[in-house]
Each structure stands twice: as structure tokens, then as C-alpha cells.
Amino acid sequence: MKRWVGLMAIGTMVFMLAACGSGGKDDNSTTTTDTQTETSTDTQTATDDPAPAEVDDQLTPEEGASLVVWDSKTGREFIDEMAKQFETEYGVTVKVEEVESPDQVNKLTTDGPAGLGADLVNFPNDQLGRAVSAGLVLENDQFADETTTESQENAVKAVSYEGILYGYPRTVETYAMIYNKAIFPEGAPKSFEDIVTFAKTYNDAKKNKYAIMWEIGNFYFNYGFLGSNGGYLFGDGGTKADDIGLNNDGAVAGAKFFGSLKDILPMNTGDVTYDIKKGLFTGGTLGIDINGPWTLADYKASGIDYGVAPLPTIEGKPMTSFSGVKAWYVNSFTKYPKAAKLFANFLTSKEAELKEFQLNGTLPANKEAINDASIQGDAVSKAFLDQFAVSQPMPSIPEMGNVWNPAAAALSEVWNDGKDAKAALDNAVQQIKDANAVNTK
């Protein structure tokens, strides 16, 4: 920050000297850099309002541009195909490096300034505030109008921060019930009460038979127990960091209900992982897996006959899942911002997002893609979209990063140790407040 302020001061002095040398007249000069989108601005006198920046009508890649993209292993087939198409159309080579989406902001924090980060990254919207505050991503300026018009409104909001659009929405996602049709031939249960009743006659730990599983140590999947009963993360729609509702009466009631479900899933939180659930479900002994569309490719490949339904109700109330928007972002330290912005826009077209839907079962953010018959006529996609309608987007403020570990630990204590729900949540909220206070100093 000190270095940036110093550079700004030097730049201001140089500008003032140049203005004096030219008699204070407008020179209509154009300034370009390797790390910014080319713009043209008229030099203004001290009494004039600054002219708005103008962008090229048609963006073209920098000469000799090549790109590095970070993406998860599950998205590899899609991104490799799109990279080939982009190179054919624009002559820009694209190298793909496998970095899981949730890890990318942490990695970019060190690799970006060092010149080692990917030109194009993607991560969930809850990490956007942290990325912006650290100066890691560029604004979506060149394609802002196109992105806003073509993407779902809530997706655009999710990838904006303090009123500025940064992301290129890739997918919207939430989780739902993925159920084995052989075990539930009449369709998935409607309520947790129905599941508890079913589990009493179906469960058999020796045969690895369980009615339902989810990642019980992961707050991403557990939030619905608190949110469905009136708990919340931050006030004012997830923007007010000093208003935390994770230990109000509704949240406490939800945590108690959550803990009671150990009767039908007698494992500790660390014993249920993604891979364990996948093995049991594809093996035909797990009735319901609470999971997202990102797992469907594996289930399709296994040949299991599955269906998808919205989450079960809790005491008659819809279970409020977390929802997120994954988007592409341009690394602010890239040498090729034009090429990177072009590729980000290329990856979020109707055709591209339908391609990813076909390969990975992901739900597109592009409105034309959503309205395509291939998605509207697909019962699985419709179920996820129905759940998305009652979901809550993850807050994007930086303080969201302080929530995950304390909240997960609190619910793990309730589940594993039978700790009082109120005491566990009070402790978690205090830890979140303490972390927030440190970050604001």
C-alpha cells in the first residue's frame, strides 16, 4: 500500500509538470500499459469534470498473448475443449493448471503479486470480497453490459462487490437430495420426519446401509438446519458484518434438530466424506446423498439409477440451502488482460455453458442457456433450480471467511459430543466477532 501511494504521488507530480510545460492545454493523449485494458481519455483542466473512460468496441488479444487458467479436476474436459476453440478463433494458446476452486484465492494472494498466478481464475462468490480487498482481480468493464444482460440477475449481484461488477458468471449451484430410485421407487421423501421413519427399518451399519448422508462436518451443507428456523449469517442480506444471527433462537432450535439426526447416522463428523458417500451411493446401499450437481458426472458414469428432489422439509418448513455463483475472474497481475477478458466472456456464452451442462451437469448462469429445452426438459436440473429458488446466496463480504471454521466446529461439538447447542453457537459467534475485529485493525 505504501509503495502504491508513493507511485501515485510521483505520478501526480509528473502530470503537473507536463501540464505546466504544455501551457495547460489538452493533449488528447492515450496511455496504455501491459496490465490494463486500453482506454483513451482526454486530459482535463483542474476545473473540468473527468471524462469517462472509453473502451474498444471490439477487444483483441495482445500480440503474442498466451494464457494460464486455473480450474478444478472435474471441469478439465470442458475447459480443455473451450481452450482449443479459443485458440482456433483468436490464436491465443491456453494452458490449464488444476487448482480446486475453493483454494484459488489463497493461492492467488501469494502467486499473483509474484507473477506466478493464472491469468484467469474461478471461485465461489463468497470469496469475492476478500479478493477485491486484496486487489487480486480486475473489474469486468469491457463486457459489463453483455454480462448484465445475459446472466441471471442474482448471479450478477453475487459477482459484484460494492456496486462494481468483477465476475463473469459461470454456474449457479446449490445442493439437493440425490436419491437411489431402487430404494425409493415412489420418489424421494418429502420431509426429514419421513426419512427418520424410513431409516429405522432400513439402516444396517454392518451392511453399510444408510437412509441418508451428507458431509456432516461441513457448514456449507449444515447451514440449512439453522437458516430454515430463522438463523442467519449477517444482517441486511449478508452485508452487515456486526449483525450475526447464528446463535438466535431459531438457529439454536435448528442446531438441536441437527444433533438429533445422529440417531439415524451414527457416525462422527469426520467419518463422512465426499468419497465415502460416493462409494456407498454408487454401491447401491446409500438411499439419499445430499450433494450438488458437481457430483452427477460420477453418478452417471457409475450407471446408478438416481433422481433429484428438493431438500426435505424441517417441521414443515423448506430447508434453506446455501447457494453460490462460481464465476471467472481476471487476475489483476496478468500480462494479458485483453486476452484474459476475451476468454472469460467466451467461457460464459450460451453455447459454452450448455456445453458444460452436458459434460458436468452444472447449472448455467446464462439466461438463454437456462431457457434451452435441454435444461427445461431435464427433471434433474429442474429439481436443483427449484431448490435454488428457496436458497440463500453466500455473503461475499470478507468477513464470510471467518465463519466457516467456528461454525463447523460448533456443530461438530453438538453432533460428536452432545454439547449444548446454545453454548456451542455462542462460542462460534464470539470467535467470528473476534476474527472480524482483528481484520478491521
UniProtKB/TrEMBL annotation:
GO terms for molecular function: carbohydrate transmembrane transporter activity; maltose binding. PROSITE patterns: PROKAR_LIPOPROTEIN (PS51257). InterPro entries: Maltose/Cyclodextrin-bd, SBP. Residues 23-57 are annotated as: Disordered. Residues 29-49 have a biased composition (Low complexity). Residues 1-18 form the signal peptide. Keywords: Cell membrane, Lipoprotein, Membrane, Signal, Sugar transport, Transport. It is found in: Cell membrane. CDD domains: PBP2_Maltose_binding_like (cd13586). GO terms for cellular component: ATP-binding cassette (ABC) transporter complex, substrate-binding subunit-containing. GO terms for biological process: maltodextrin transmembrane transport; maltose transport. Pfam families: SBP_bac_8. It is a lipid-anchor. It comes from the Bacteria. Its main location: membrane. PANTHER family: MALTOSE-BINDING PERIPLASMIC PROTEIN, MALTOSE_MALTODEXTRIN-BINDING PERIPLASMIC PROTEIN. Belongs to the bacterial solute-binding protein 1 family. This is Maltodextrin-binding protein. It comes from Paenibacillus cellulosilyticus. The lineage of its organism: Bacteria, Bacillati, Bacillota, Bacilli, Bacillales.
